[in-house]
Backbone:
């Protein structure tokens, strides 16, 4: 019996990725990336995972700021939360994003348990992914998906290898929610993950949440791209939709109106609107600011949420 050779091609024949094809969620999660969303208990990991899931499924900006270049179906398994709680959280995020939940292809696995260390459940999950062809698979949290020893690389690696195979076979990004070790506040984000170092090494894109007094601190890490700046997040105040909010001062109105040697896209958009005598339509802003539509829409959504501008039937104007 002869053995077939592995497929090869010349390096110069490898395809280039266009910039818009490198991100599932711009700056937060790479296209077809597998990785970890890690953090301490009760610090918003599941809420952020749902925000990412709804953004990818709907094409709206994640956290009202980070654009989704190519939206598509999302498959979610929430192992720790009751389904009515998942629905309540998604309703809140959808309200904040201005999305009708019934209009998006966000599918929730309703099975009472999913054990990825068993062949039967691995096959069931793969058949579901094969049927739905999601752009993103969200599994929350890792500890509820197995009964292996998380500290044993020999047991963790095959499970992570299975998820990597799903990504490569079905071109599906995988986001795995995971906990950090107790007393790990002094460690670097990736080193704080509970269990084997295989988990940190596995990720193409990783997000880490930590609580700092009344704020949440989000760190971003990518294997093949520069990591973005850290963000400050907060749970919503009373009366606002149940969705995490960006509260870092970089994007607040005070900074948008401050002088800077290089204007950020958000600052450029705000200053264009503020200088206009009349409300500006989306097409006018796109032409004036020379920003692609997807990014511009994300910036406008964020500025409206921050109260810096307002939207009317005539267009966008500065809040005065």
Residues:
């Amino acid at each position: 019996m002869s053995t077939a050779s592995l497929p090869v091609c010349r390096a110069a024949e490898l395809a280039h990725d266009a910039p818009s094809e490198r991100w599932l969620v711009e700056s937060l999660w790479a296209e077809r990336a597998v990785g970890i969303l890690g953090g301490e208990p009760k610090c918003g990991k599941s809420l952020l995972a749902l925000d990412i899931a709804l953004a990818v499924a709907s094409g709206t900006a994640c956290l009202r700021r980070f654009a989704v270049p190519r939206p598509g179906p999302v498959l979610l398994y929430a192992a720790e939360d009751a389904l009515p709680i998942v629905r309540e959280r998604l309703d809140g995020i959808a309200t904040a994003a201005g999305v009708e939940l019934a209009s998006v292809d966000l599918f929730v696995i309703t099975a009472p348990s999913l054990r990825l260390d068993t062949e039967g459940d691995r096959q069931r999950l793969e058949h579901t992914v094969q049927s739905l062809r999601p752009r993103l698979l969200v599994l929350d949290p890792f500890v509820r998906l197995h009964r292996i020893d998380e500290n044993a690389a020999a047991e963790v690696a095959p499970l992570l290898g299975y998820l990597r195979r799903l990504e490569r076979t079905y071109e599906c990004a995988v986001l795995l929610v995971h906990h950090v070790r107790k007393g790990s506040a002094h460690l670097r984000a990736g080193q704080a993950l509970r269990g084997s170092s295989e988990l940190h090494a596995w990720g193409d894109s990783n997000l880490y949440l930590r609580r700092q007094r009344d704020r949440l601190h989000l760190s971003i890490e990518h294997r093949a791209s520069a990591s973005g700046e850290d963000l400050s997040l907060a749970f919503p105040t009373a009366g606002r939709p149940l969705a995490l909010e960006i509260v870092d001062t970089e994007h607040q109105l005070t900074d948008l109106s401050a002088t800077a040697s290089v204007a950020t896209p958000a600052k450029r958009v705000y200053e264009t609107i503020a200088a206009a005598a009349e409300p500006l339509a989306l097409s006018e802003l796109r032409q004036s600011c020379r920003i692609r539509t997807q990014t511009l829409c994300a910036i406008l959504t964020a500025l409206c949420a921050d109260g810096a501008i307002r939207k009317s039937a005539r267009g966008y104007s500065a809040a005065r």
